[in-house]
Design brief:
Elements lengths: L1 H21 L2 H14 L5 H12 L4 E5 L15 E5 L16 H9 L10 E6 L5 H14 E9 L29 H9 L5 E5 L5 E5 L17 H6 L1 H5 L1 E2 L1 H9 L1
Helix pairs in contact: 3-9, 5-6
Organism: Fulvivirga sediminis
Keywords: Methyltransferase, Transferase
Protein name: Class I SAM-dependent methyltransferase
Length: about 250
């Protein structure tokens, strides 16, 4: 009898999850969003390589946050490449500078590594995905990117608020293991700046681009004072200047 009661309780719990969790709109939207972004046929390295090739010269590339270099860094076609990562997610961590990006830029400023006068054609920011960190990464990268070069940011277009959560390690949300963090907030801060040009390519979780000298999109005038995800979600096309990969290629090649 006890056994059957236990079985029945389990069955009821399963039924509850089916109704309350797996058929819930938040859960279904998050699953759909994850599939759309994770199966995108164009990836961040396609964007970066297209930008580097468009410059038609010897190119310098910096990647902040590398994890396994086979996923992106090794696929980048630049003449000179540097990588920065403190090694939080991949124990081998085969990078040039085993540092946080804050420490890397501090040492670069002091002339303790590379050269103070170095300028990159592309800086790819993909380190800690919390807005305050990404904000510092963008601010530092702006000082070390060439005027006609590009800052590229991964994870600017979280499909739902669950993907945009602060907590990386907690996976019991409708987004499961997928995490974009609050990178979008930092990107949007720079999307508002009139001295910068920017856009976001709608592939691979949103690949954001910022340039000081190349015209790649007008700043946004939309200002969400309280940075609520729901407001961002309603106007994301304009706030991010969201464009397709084909539109991006046309813009760069014109
Ligand atoms: C999403 S992974 C990078 C993925 C890689 N860029 C790619 O395209 O496949 C994020 C990496 O950022 C690193 N990271 C975390 N905090 C960091 C920080 N403060 N500065 C630089 N990198 C950081 C982690 O160790 C991790 O390897």
């Amino acid at each position: 009898m006890k056994y059957f009661k236990k079985l029945y309780r389990r069955y009821k719990l399963g039924e509850y999850y089916e109704e309350v969790v797996f058929k819930n709109k938040h859960y279904l939207d998050a699953q759909k969003g994850s599939i759309y972004q994770a199966t995108s046929d164009k990836k961040r390295y396609d964007v970066i390589n297209h930008l580097l090739a468009s410059l038609n010269r010897e190119t310098f590339y910096l990647e902040i946050g590398v994890r396994n270099p086979q996923d992106n860094f090794n696929l980048i076609k630049a003449n000179v490449k540097y990588s920065v990562d403190p090694g939080l997610e991949y124990t081998q961590n085969p990078v040039d500078f085993k540092l946080t990006s804050d420490d890397f830029f501090e040492q670069l400023d002091q002339g303790a590594l590379l050269s103070k006068s170095i300028k990159f054609d592309v800086v790819f920011i993909d380190g800690m995905h919390l807005a305050s960190y990404v904000d510092r990464d963008i601010s530092n990268a702006l000082r070390y990117v060439k005027d006609d070069g590009f800052i590229v940011l991964h994870d600017c277009n979280p499909p739902t608020e669950w993907h945009a959560r602060d907590q990386y390690l907690y996976e019991w949300t409708p987004a499961n293991k997928y995490w974009n963090g609050s990178t979008w907030k930092a990107f949007v801060k720079y999307r508002k700046m009139n001295n910068l040009s920017s856009c976001c390519i709608d592939i691979d979780w949103g690949v954001g681009l910022i340039s000081k000298g190349k015209n790649i999109g007008e700043p946004t005038s939309i200002d969400d004072e309280f940075y609520e995800y729901s407001t961002f979600c309603l106007s994301r096309k304009e706030v991010l200047n969201l464009i397709s990969f084909d539109e991006f290629k046309l813009m760069v090649d014109r």
